[in-house]
Amino acid sequence: MGKPKKAAVIGGGVIGGGWAARLVLAGVDVAIADPDPDAKRKLDAIMANAERAMARLWPGQTIGDPGQLTYEDSIGAAVSGADLVQESAPERLDLKKRIHQEIGEAASDDAIIGSSTSGLLPSDIQAEMPHADRMMVAHPYNPVYLLPVVEIVGGQKTSADAIAKAMTIYASIGMKPVHLQKEIDAFVGDRLLEAMWRESLWLIKDGIATAETIDDVVRYGLGLRYAQMGQFMTYRLGGGEAGMRHFLEQFGPSLQWPWTKLMDVPDWDDDLIDMIASQSDAQAKGKSIHELEEIRDNNLVDILKALKANDWGAGALIQNPAEDRVKSGDQRLPDGEVLETWSGRVDQNWTDYNGHMTEFRYLEVFSMATDRLLVWVGGGPAYVETGSSWYTIETHIKHIDEVAAGKPMRVETQLISHDAKRIHLFHKLYGVEKGNLLATGEHMLMHVDMTAGRSSPMPDAMKALCDTIAERQAGLPRPDEIGASIGLRQK
Amino acid sequence: MGKPKKAAVIGGGVIGGGWAARLVLAGVDVAIADPDPDAKRKLDAIMANAERAMARLWPGQTIGDPGQLTYEDSIGAAVSGADLVQESAPERLDLKKRIHQEIGEAASDDAIIGSSTSGLLPSDIQAEMPHADRMMVAHPYNPVYLLPVVEIVGGQKTSADAIAKAMTIYASIGMKPVHLQKEIDAFVGDRLLEAMWRESLWLIKDGIATAETIDDVVRYGLGLRYAQMGQFMTYRLGGGEAGMRHFLEQFGPSLQWPWTKLMDVPDWDDDLIDMIASQSDAQAKGKSIHELEEIRDNNLVDILKALKANDWGAGALIQNPAEDRVKSGDQRLPDGEVLETWSGRVDQNWTDYNGHMTEFRYLEVFSMATDRLLVWVGGGPAYVETGSSWYTIETHIKHIDEVAAGKPMRVETQLISHDAKRIHLFHKLYGVEKGNLLATGEHMLMHVDMTAGRSSPMPDAMKALCDTIAERQAGLPRPDEIGASIGLRQK
Q1: d(Cα B307, Cα B212) in Å, to the nearest integer?
Q2: What are the helix (H) ranges across A395-479?
Q3: B427 - beta bridge partners?
Q4: Which of these, A188, B248, B249, B432, is most buried using a 10 Å CB contact count?
């Protein structure tokens, strides 16, 4: 089945509110029941966070038709007619049993009933309720509107049909349902978290490291791997070309070493090695270590860029190897008539749904080429810090040929003309392999006194460097594209 | 001190090679010593990975001047004159002691000597070597050229001066050195990893979940939090407005619950609660829960976008709420003369070093506006799948006003003219708060038969919708910007 038409959210705290936000923004009508008189205010705050996140994910996109959000006075009224019932009440078994009794009495025969409990067993919660066959644990992670994983754990009475239906329902709202084979206290995620937590408590109590140091080791290190690959896939790469079995055989003995205060370990025998190695093979779906390394590095680069854009954590550390030299002004104008202002490749993330470099990336490349030329005439980032800058006031791009991801490109730049306040530039973007012209960019830049907020003459030294470029390029032909206009009637 | 001038890398496997790549790309000369006859081939592969990653981080940027990489036959020759010596030999104490003896004999008095060991104690390694006061553990994570964290652990003989100097040296090459207060087997990161690993082995052995399921719980869930905030900061947010102390008091009892097979737990007393709560306060540096939630969500959104660009993990799940409707063609042309084709905000990551929306993002917005109009005439993603598409062949942008991050904007679009194969569009981008015109975009689009690789007439139904727009907009004045050209001489 597809998306639920109506969902009931029972309990509207941080988790319940996160469910409501995810469901509403996915276009599902939500009826919420929560005895807290402050529930609406809290939910409004969560909805605002979720809407803000969605607007950043899809800038300028209409968020489809959001679902209707209604508040009900009783669990029964909220549950009535819902395809999905999600309970997120406090973690007390007696309370949850009572709530699920009410849910079961009001639920339709084919509703899926999920509990957000992070530790209680579904068999205990469902023991006496009606419709127990439809009830299961569906344990999400905070913030529910952004994190996709949900652990699906059936109890003794849960039907296979309900589990199968739940897997499609949660996937339909953008989640990643993972089905655990057996019920167990705390399921999988909280077990892993609890193990790390207990180890961390020892590290703090024993004075090895502070909370901040422990967090830093995570967010500058292993967390960057965990955001894209889990432990087993990461270790598969750690084994290198020799693969997972080799890694396991090497790593096994450490189970006997005093590497943790938590010492109850399973027997490290051939059966366990076989089980893990074959599960790891299945998980890799035939991808070689080299392919997985490339995927890992691509993901890491883009995660680091994402964090850099927010000036946070590992991203804030990234050093641009050229930046020091640019800032210190140590970027001299190269000799010669032809100025190569950019060379690089079409990034894999620069393509559109046609598989070609998407149009705004052409301007990104031209913009980088312009920045390089500005550095050469003394107008780079260090100059901007003095309070003046060059603003692009006009741009004219002609697209001539398409180019695919990974292909090398280069930009040649011609200074068409300049006066005291303006620079008129022309960029030619070439494919390197075929030497074909991909696009041209004609740009007018204005020198601006940012403090005064108006155009101003550039400094003499900068003007002299522009004069030098103009002299050197005096022999270049004036490109046909210069001064051209767009229009159907010209043809 | 700043960057080292010369570094010696002793052992060139996955970790040593990663060190060499990070150092060389940071502009440091590296002398490498490794007895493996295959060392150069392996290192070349790692260098290629690292160079590829750097090119993606900084597209088209000159990677400064990379350091020189030389191979030496002996440890002594590699170490001679190095400011930093990094040993990454196999994890055998006798071997490491022998290597550090040689390193100590050849090292200059002020060299920093780091061992990449992931578990051996620095006091054991340094016990008998010369220059033991300069030796410490400096434990990185794979891939060293991308992951910044390095655990700095001194031994009994390590001087405070050497630790202080190491903290600046490793930071100078873009790393995050974290100093542990005491030496301990496996340090911090591998303790956390080992705790999770041991718990995971139980989960597999007991048949609760497979390796893939466990990894999925990590990469679709907790790993996305760990990439930006560690455990303690995450739990601080979990406590909501009531803060970390409240969270700890609630969470404490779970230490006595059977939530892990690893049961040796510290006493959960007021001292431990005080210690953690105050360390968490220090770490938050005065940021409120609400501020931290916003940071968390911004990071999550950008990490998810990063993974989406690579069609991997949690990113591959992100649903565009509008996409279903666009794909199914259910996006009808709105009525009226004025067509609003885009509205949204300047994303916080769209600004340049002047703090304004950077130039290529204007084209990104115009491009989204064009896409919306194409959807309305039946030329959206579903149409592209039939083998035809609209390509932008020419673009002319005029910048009129600047706009800062977070500001709302909207685009109005006018169909200037069209024929069988071409559409001539004009976008006006307005700031919503002041109603001021920020920029205009004039675009010529060509209808292309992608299979034949040439222009082709658009379908009649699409042409009819263009005719409808043209009729409705017949009363709009022709913008002055249409058909304009760029040039200094016009002024």
Answers
A1: 18
A2: 460-472
A3: B413, B441
A4: A188
The HSE-up count of residue B313 (CA atoms within 13 Å, CB side) is 34
At residue A490, the pLDDT reads 44
- CA distance linking residue B205 with residue A183, whole number of Å: 14
A115's CB contacts (< 8 A; 6+ apart) are A86, A87, A88, A96, A100, A122, A125, A135, A136, A137, A138, A139
Please report residues of B whose CB lies closer than 8 A to that of A276: 201, 204, 211
Give the number of beta-carbon pairs within 8 Å between A and B.
604
pLDDT of B441 strictly over 80: yes
Residues B381 and B345 in one domain: yes
Q: Do A283 and B394 touch (CB under 8 A)?
A: no
User: Quick check: A221 contacting B, CB < 8 Å?
Assistant: yes
CB-CB under 8 Å, B55 with A345: yes
Q: Which residue has the higher pLDDT, A240 or B72?
A: B72
Cβ <8 Å between A486 and B396? yes
Pick the last residue of a domain from B294, B314, B336: B294
**Which residues in A lie closer than 8 A to residue B325 (C-beta atoms)?**
64
- Same domain, yes or no: B215 and B259: yes
Looking at the fold, whether B331 and B426 belong to one and the same domain comes out as: yes
> What CATH number did the domain enclosing A21 receive?
3.40.50.720
Asked if residue A62 is part of any domain, the answer here is yes
Say if A333 falls within a structural domain.
Answer: yes
Q: What is the mean pLDDT of chain B?
A: 90
Assigned domain for B52 exists: yes
pLDDT tens column, B239-259: 766 778 777 877 766 666 766
Query: In this structure, what token pair is assigned to residue B107?
Result: 């090292």
Contact (CB<8Å) B280/A223: no
Q: Is A156 on the interface with B (CB under 8 A)?
A: no
DSSP secondary structure, B33-47, as one string: E---TTHHHHHHHHH
Q: CB-based contact (8 Å) between B422 and chain A?
A: yes
What's the CATH number where B418 sits?
3.10.129.10
Which one-letter amino acid corresponds to residue B280?
S
Which of B150, B91, B140, B82 has the alpha carbon at shortest distance from B112? B82
Q: Mutate which of B262, B372, B426 to test chain A, going by most A C-beta atoms within 10 A? A: B262
Does position B1 have pLDDT exceeding 70, yes or no?
A: no
| B396 to A391: CB separation less than 8 angstroms, yes or no | no
Of A260, A261, A417, the CB nearest to B488: A417
A481/B contact by beta carbon, under 8 A: no
pLDDT of residue B259: 66
Domain end among B187, B207, B242: B187
Q: Which of A320, A347, A392 sits opposite B56 (nearest CB)?
A: A347
Please indicate whether, in this complex, the C-beta atoms of A56 and B347 are within 8 angstroms of each other: yes
Low-confidence ranges of chain A (pLDDT < 50): 490-491
Q: Give per-residue pLDDT as tens, B138-147.
A: 999 999 999 9
Q: How many domains does chain B have?
A: 3
pTM for this predicted structure: 0.88
What's the rounded Cα separation, in Å, for the pair A71 and B452? 56
Structural domain of A348: 323-472
Strand duo B149-154 + B176-179: pairing: parallel
Residue B26 sits in the same domain as residue B156:
yes
Is residue A358 domain-shared with residue A372, that is, in the same domain? yes
Selected residues 352-381 of chain B with any CB under 8 Å from a CB in chain A? 353-354, 358-361, 363-368, 381
Nearest to A258 among B185, B258, B489 (CB): B185
Q: What is the ipTM of this complex?
A: 0.88
Specify the range with the lowest mean pLDDT, choosing from B187-201, B272-286, B294-308.
Answer: B272-286
Q: Which of A169, A173, A284 is nearest to A237 (CA)?
A: A284
Residue B203 counted as domain residue: yes
